[in-house]
Design brief:
Layout: E1 3-6, E2 9-14, E3 17-22, E4 28-34, E5 37-38, H1 46-52, E6 60-61, E7 72-75, E8 78-81, E9 109-113, E10 117-123, H2 128-133, E11 138-147, E12 150-159, E13 165-167, E14 170-171, E15 174-175, E16 186-189, E17 192-197, E18 203-210, E19 213-216, E20 222-227, E21 233-238, E22 241-249, E23 253-258, E24 265-270, H3 276-279, E25 284-286, E26 291-302
Antiparallel strand pairs: 1-2, 2-3, 3-4, 4-5, 6-14, 7-8, 9-10, 10-11, 11-12, 12-26, 13-25, 15-24, 16-19, 16-21, 17-18, 17-20, 20-23, 21-22, 22-26, 23-24
């Protein structure tokens, strides 16, 4: 059976990999270790993540990935005004709502667990504080499986009978491969379409086709949005280990984030582009009483 560090954190293990997830903090991935070495950026730890949405692990960005261009949106026939004082919401450096509302959510229910897998559910319709942010009753389900060389995460949204549910979520894996300094990390990117962003990090309409490339990260920084094809793979390598985020199903967009002042790089699977709840660009939805899933894998490879 899955071992628990405490009643709120589960630990999975298979072969050389171990992973931890916090059921009381948005099912954030707390740790991913390979042969005892941490592969994730954990910043100020779980408490800082819950309190401030700080850099940490593998958070689920839900119900929107990255930022919105304002504190109100309209989608699937509903108009929503976000409460700036809500403890579930965080603002970015421009005071725009960012990274959704689940960092402090404590209502995940473990539906199934084993030594190398866990399935957890969150019923939005049962929680008024979540419906105030995202008034679309549905059940959110995470099926997480650890294999000897990969962590796989499948997210399923099952819409309630009340109506359709927009899909605008993503994940933000903070990767920090040991074995080399940040400037020496080897990065491999697939062919992709760059979506131009303005000074606020919001899509401005420009598009540029980019070929696959590989390079040493050096002093380069990223906070860039891309449209990608199914199965796109993004990698970073250090020492004799390569970490690859593979967008296996239904993720059509990805953000790359590599700040100057933190030794992390993120390849972020996204079901819709930044600000899709307001712009409706690339926004899909799940019809009432139907379901939709998206999955990605974080692979650990020797090189």
């Amino acid at each position: 059976m899955t071992t628990a560090l405490d009643p709120r954190v589960v630990e999975l293990a298979d072969g050389d990999l171990t992973a931890r997830f916090a059921t009381h903090a948005g099912m954030v991935g707390c740790s991913l270790r390979h042969r005892g070495e941490e592969l994730l950026g954990i910043g100020g730890g779980l408490a800082a993540y819950v309190e401030r949405g700080a850099v940490f692990g593998i958070p689920l960005l839900y119900p929107w990935a990255n930022r919105l261009s304002g504190w109100r949106y309209e989608a699937c026939g509903r108009r929503v005004v976000l409460e700036r004082g809500s403890p579930l919401l965080h603002g970015d450096e421009h005071c725009l709502p960012i990274h959704g509302a689940l960092a402090a959510a404590s209502s995940w229910r473990v539906a199934d667990a084993g030594a190398s897998h866990v399935t957890a559910e969150l019923d939005f319709g049962a929680h008024p504080e979540l419906l105030a942010v995202f008034p679309f009753p549905h059940v959110l389900r995470l099926a997480i499986r650890l294999e000897a060389s990969a962590l796989e995460v499948e997210t399923t949204v099952t819409a309630g009978r009340e109506g359709a549910v927009p899909l605008s979520f993503g994940f933000h894996p903070y990767l920090a491969p040991p074995g080399a300094a940040r400037g020496d990390w080897w990065v491999e990117l697939p062919a992709r379409t760059a979506l131009e962003l303005d000074a606020f990090g919001l899509p401005s309409g420009g598009r540029t086709e980019l070929a696959a490339e590989a390079f040493t990260l050096g002093a380069r920084t990223f906070d860039d949005l891309f449209a990608v094809t199914p199965g796109a793979r993004f990698s970073v390598a250090a020492g004799d280990r390569r970490l690859t985020v593979e967008l296996t199903t239904s993720y059509r967009y990805a953000q790359i984030f590599a700040p100057r002042d933190q030794d992390v790089i993120c390849f972020e699977p996204m079901t819709a582009p930044v600000d899709a709840l307001r712009s409706h660009d690339g926004l899909r939805s799940v019809p009432a009483e139907e379901r939709a899933s998206a999955s990605f894998a974080l692979r650990v490879e020797r090189r």
